[in-house]
Design a protein that fits this description.
The chain is α+β, with helices and mostly antiparallel strands. It has a single domain, classed as Protein Transport Mog1p, Chain A, CATH 3.40.1000. The protein has three helices and nine strands. Strand 8 and strand 9 form a beta hairpin. The longest helix has 18 residues. The chain is globular, with a radius of gyration of 15 Å. The two termini are about 30 Å apart.
C-alpha cells in the first residue's frame, strides 16, 4: 500500500512552518513520525502525543507562545473504518460537525485532487476557532487530518503555504 506521505507533509508544513518562521529566525528542526500507512513531519518544538482515543492516531501540540496564550494549536489524525465513498464520508463528517457545533460556519468545502478539504469556524468557550480538515479514503479507511487554531492566529500558521 502506498503511504499517504506527500499530502500530510504538505498540510503539516503549511500549518507548522508558517508559525515557526513567523515568530523566529532560527532554522527549523524537524521530527518525523513514520507508521505503516503514513509519514508526517513536524517541528521539533511541537509536542507529539500518541493515540488518545479509539481512532485517534496522534495529536501534535504547538508550544505555548506567551502567558496570554490560551490555546495550543494542534494537528491530529483520525483513521477510521468506512464503507462510504470519499464524497459520502465527507458529507457525513460535515453533518456530524454541524450537529456537534450548531454555530459552526462552513468556510470551504471542496474536493482537491484525491481528498476533500473543509475549513470551518466555530465559537466555543468564549473563543473563536478555525478548523481545517482534509479527508482521504483508501482501502476502506478514512484518514481525517485536522488542524485547529484560534481564528486570529490562523494566518500566522499558514503564511508560508
Amino acid at each position: 500500500m502506498k503511504k499517504i506521505f506527500i499530502k500530510f507533509s504538505v498540510l503539516v508544513t503549511v500549518f507548522l512552518i508558517g508559525n515557526i518562521v513567523f515568530g523566529q529566525n532560527d532554522e527549523v528542526i524537524w521530527n518525523t513520525l513514520t507508521k505503516k500507512d503514513y509519514t508526517i513531519n513536524y517541528p521539533s518544538n511541537w509536542q507529539l502525543k500518541g493515540s488518545i482515543g479509539v481512532y485517534n492516531e496522534f495529536v501534535i501540540l504547538s508550544p505555548i507562545t506567551s502567558r496570554n496564550d490560551r490555546v495550543r494549536e494542534n494537528v491530529n489524525l483520525v483513521i477510521q473504518p468506512t464503507y462510504s465513498s470519499l464524497k459520502e464520508h465527507f458529507s457525513e463528517m460535515v453533518y456530524d460537525l454541524k450537529r456537534a457545533y450548531p454555530n459552526i460556519r462552513v468556510q470551504v468545502s471542496e474536493k482537491v485532487g484525491n481528498y476533500y478539504k473543509g475549513i470551518f469556524e466555530v465559537h466555543q468557550n468564549n473563543l473563536n476557532f478555525r478548523v481545517e480538515q482534509r479527508l482521504w479514503v483508501r482501502d476502506n479507511k478514512a484518514y481525517i487530518l485536522t488542524f485547529t487554531c484560534e481564528k486570529e492566529q490562523y494566518w500566522n500558521y499558514s503564511k508560508i503555504g
